[in-house]
Amino acid sequence: MALGMGFATNSMNIPALVGKGCLILSDELNHTSLILGARLSGATIRVFKHNNMQSLERLLREAVCTGQPRTHRPWKKIMIMVEGIYSMEGSVVRLPDIVALKKKYKAYLYLDEAHSIGAVGPTGRGVTELFGLDPSDIDVMMGTFTKSFGAAGGFIAGKKELVDYLRSYSHSAVYSSAMSPPITEQILRVMKCIMGLDGTTVGQARVQQLAENTRYFRSRLQEMGFIIYG
Length: 230
Known about the structure:
GO biological process, one term: ceramide biosynthetic process
Keywords: Acyltransferase, Pyridoxal phosphate, Transferase
Distance between the termini: 30 Å
Number of domains: 1
Strand order of the largest sheet: 1-7-6-5-4-2-3
Structural class: alpha/beta
Strand content: 5-15%
Organism: Coregonus suidteri
Protein name: Aminotransferase class I/classII large domain-containing protein
CATH superfamily: Type I PLP-dependent aspartate aminotransferase-like (Major domain)
Number of strands: 7
CATH topology: Aspartate Aminotransferase, domain 2
Cofactor: pyridoxal 5'-phosphate
């Protein structure tokens, strides 16, 4: 499902997915749009240390064992919220470990690929491709068209039931206008270029060049004695 504003793709869709009686486990370096969406949802929010699986599992175990405060009823939903590449410091999510924990504790996973889609993975398909994971293991996959695509807007991807539900209940889908035709065409052309469906290898070459440039930049910074995050 495509939406006209990247920030609102998080902030206006999360309240449609979780609410009172639900629990959000959020990485401490998540983007403001994720934080705002979580706050607007009315769900209980607990923050785990950045990319720290021990911290996340501790919260998951506590949530499953003790349930909601006071009543101790089971949470209606437990949703883990993470980013593919964190804009705060450029670190990559420990996705295989998070998927394993999600399955172990029967939680949902919301993945923000705003900074990774079109940029990482052998063919630019994001962190799921980077780690060789099945995208179906991600319950809600979000991304924006403002980074690799050079356009505007965002998207939510998931099962048909999820998309159909959001089309009816998401404030961003119901109360905002659709993308303009020029922006839509820009996104389609870039997507075809990255996928190699435009009859050229330009897109793939740029994805590979970006990876090489990143490795070179990091190595030179290390040689110069800089502290590197991410």
